[in-house]
Write a structure and sequence with these properties.
By secondary structure, this protein is of the alpha/beta class. The chain is built from nine helices and seven strands. Helix 3 (68-82) runs parallel beside helix 4 (105-132). The protein has helices spanning 18-29, 41-53, 68-82, 105-132, 154-174, 192-198, 204-213, 223-234, 258-264; strands spanning 9-13, 33-37, 58-61, 87-90, 136-141, 179-186, 245-248.
Length: 271
């Protein structure tokens, strides 16, 4: 079956790069009008230029999704320029490192404001617009860290766990008004944010190699591999899916003890 979003408007936060940019390209290729929301104006405008070069209808909006006043102004502006809102991809996110005793309150707020509060605010103001159009679909970009954890990432882990809870609350509270909400849980995806994180290590290449080895196929995921799942969840093909945590992790969470254990521990033993 072919996904066709003709007449639909998709709003993508963090749409200037990585998974968000890949989503924008996928939605445009399926005939949706796209609102690219990103704090980075250069990245956002470049993405919109790519979409328009492909013949797509797209607009860029510079917003800090963690600030209520900006989001409250944003939603009517999108409706005015593009005609409404049918799909919301809450994808904006940042990564920072630290434990509960080493991070500052400011660092905690920074991560939670973008990753979790931003999704709350965008949903808060977009859902009424969806209901006006007979319903809609929300997809959150969570993480395998929505159900598991990585050391030295307390605020990030909490934000991604929170996104899954927010997804399920929205699906329950607004299902009767034909608003669905689902959450994708990517593994390590080769995005600018992941490569930024790798550069924090003295040996970035070793970090990237380790990220590859996390997955069953021995390689990280690509942004478009996640984007295609997001597009599916936003489409009528997924009309009976809501409140779901959808793994897009290349099997990262499948092997007991992780892939290193499978390759060198008892999992590597020959029958």
């Amino acid at each position: 079956m072919i996904v066709d979003f003709q007449g639909k408007v998709a709003v993508i936060t963090g749409g200037g790069s990585g998974i968000g940019q890949a989503c924008a390209l996928e939605f445009v290729s399926s005939n949706a009008a796209v609102a690219v929301v990103d704090l980075d104006s250069e990245a956002g405008r470049q993405t919109v230029s790519q979409l328009q070069e492909k013949g797509g209808r797209a607009e860029y909006f510079q917003v800090n999704v963690g600030v209520r006043s900006q989001v409250e102004r944003l939603i009517p502006e999108i409706v005015s320029k593009l005609g409404g809102i049918d799909i919301l991809v809450n994808n904006a996110g940042i990564q920072r490192y630290g434990t509960v005793t080493t991070i500052s309150e400011e660092e905690w707020n920074e991560v939670l404001n973008v990753n979790l509060k931003g999704a709350f605010l965008m949903s808060k103001f977009a859902i009424p617009q969806m209901i006006k159009r007979g319903g809609g679909a929300i997809v959150m970009t969570g993480s395998v860290q929505s159900v598991a954890a990585q050391r030295n990432s307390a605020h990030y882990v909490v934000s991604k766990h929170g996104l899954l809870g927010l997804t399920r609350s929205i699906s329950l509270d607004y299902g009767g008004q034909n608003v669905r909400a689902n959450c994708v849980l990517p593994g390590a995806i080769d995005t600018p944010m992941l490569r930024w994180a790798a550069r924090l290590d003295p040996n970035p290449a070793k970090v990237l190699e380790s990220c590859d080895r996390l997955h069953v196929r021995g390689a990280m995921g690509r942004p478009e591999e996640v984007a295609r799942v997001i597009v599916f969840l936003a489409s009528d093909l997924a009309s009976f899916m809501t409140g779901e945590a959808v793994m897009v992790d290349g099997g990262l969470l499948v092997p007991v003890g992780g892939m290193a254990f499978q390759q060198s521990g008892t999992g590597a033993a020959k029958a």
